[in-house]
Amino acid sequence: MASTADFDISQLSADQQEALQQYTDVTSQEIMDAVPLLQRSQWNVQIAVAKFFDGEGPDLVAEAQAAQNHTPRASARHENLQESFLEGGPRPSSASRQRPEPAPRVVPQLPVIYRPPFLLTVVFTPFQIGYRVFAGVIRFAIYILSFLPRPLRPRAVTSSIRRGWKAPSERRVTLPKETAERFRREFVEEYGEQDLVFFDGGHAQALDAAKKDLKFLLTVLISPEHDDTESFVKSTLLSPEVVSFVNDPANNVIVWGGNVLDSEAYQVASEYMCTKYPFSCLVCLTPKEGSTRMSIVKRLTGPMTPAAYLAGIETAISKYAPDLDGVRLERASQAVVRNLRSEQDSAYERSLARDRERARQRKEAAAAAAAAEKRALEEAEAATRQEELRQQWRKWRATTIAAEPNAGVRLALNMPVSLGGGRELYAFVECYNLLQEPLPDEKVAKPDGYEHKYAIQIASVLPRETLEPSEYVTISEKMGRGGSLVVEDISHDDDDDDDDDDDVNGE
């Protein structure tokens, strides 16, 4: 460890000194190099260790924090003369503008079916039958009058045709998605195919989508019984400039439409205090009023020209779009920081996993080496013990072999089966060197539990046949009255391939 004379550790806080100590204990890096790396890692020991072992790339955390600190502020909001007239007079400046009213989240409530007592049902049954007969007559009359030209139709007949000859209370209450599908189907049937894209869910789902994706929600409520509905839809809402603007992905607009004859749209109209049709309002997230608050930033009521309708939407979007852009940038920077933290944590975990794997491999290698050394020692000890037993056996066996006859005397030795003729010959050859020396006076005992394996084999020359050390076959049975035998060394302990051949002549 380098000296700390060039750096005063006392300038660091207690936590920083502790982090420095932990880091240097792991990496053994000099203090002059460790302090800058810890500073770049926000004094996080894990991140610093990961950077030390895996290398240090660009500091994305600092870049993300710098981007977050330099989030562009909302530009000054200016109002034009046209908007002032549309709002009924000049509005306050952006510095003193009123807070937008909150946009309620409307969740449709299914109606509770009340079943009257059986007695009341019996009493009012005639009145129900009469009402149904009367309603049937009215519907038949409306059906007959529907064949008249539009200018000659009564207003009530036209309204009834638009809403499918059903009173508001008779429209079946469905789920929000089914209600949205029914609205689009009736809208196409009434005004033909069009390019305007409506949200395919309930108003609460559309509000949640606009809040999550930081978009503007344009809510359009129409009433088939209102005289201005048809002209507004055909001339304003479905005008090419309006359709092109709201369908442009760059403007981030979600359009939700509803028929006030439906339960959900009626509840939306009540919550949003709609008093005049056609009704449109623009809703978006207002971060300056609260990070989770959705507010109504523009109301468009009554009939108006496409230019005025589009101008009101564009003005509101231009006011609040910078705020949403700032939130998007903030979310992006937070996502970058989260991803970076996750990547750094993953890199640190991978580094720890590699260190653990290396430690495991080193431990296994050391254990294997120790086991091999122990096994080699045991094998060497076993070989030494085996050699000692072999030599003891040879000494013992040499004392059990009969002495050779005097020189000049030819003996024909026919070994009995009990002496094991083949084994006696092998023992004679095995102990031949010991038989050339005087036998020891002390008696050598046969080693217990030792089974001797001969390192030689005896074979006849012509024809070639190996004579095994059998206890039941004698040499005379194999050789007859005489022959030439060859002793071959088959010891596996020596790497020398040379054979020590001795000729043994027997008769």
UniProtKB/TrEMBL annotation:
Q: In its UniProt entry, what is this protein called?
A: UAS domain-containing protein
Ranges where the UAS domain occurs: 182-314
The yes or no answer to whether the keyword Transcription is present is no
Q: Which residues form a coiled coil?
A: 360-390
What's the superkingdom here?
Eukaryota
Give any Gene Ontology cellular component: endoplasmic reticulum
Query: For the region Disordered, what residue ranges are annotated?
Result: 84-103, 484-507
Q: Where is the composition biased (Acidic residues)?
A: 491-507
Arranged from A to Z, the UniProt key words for this protein are: Coiled coil
The entry lists its GO molecular-function terms as: ubiquitin binding
Task: Report any Pfam family annotated for this entry.
Answer: UBA_4
**InterPro entries attached to this UniProt entry:** Thioredoxin-like_sf, UAS, UBA-like_sf, UBX_domain-protein
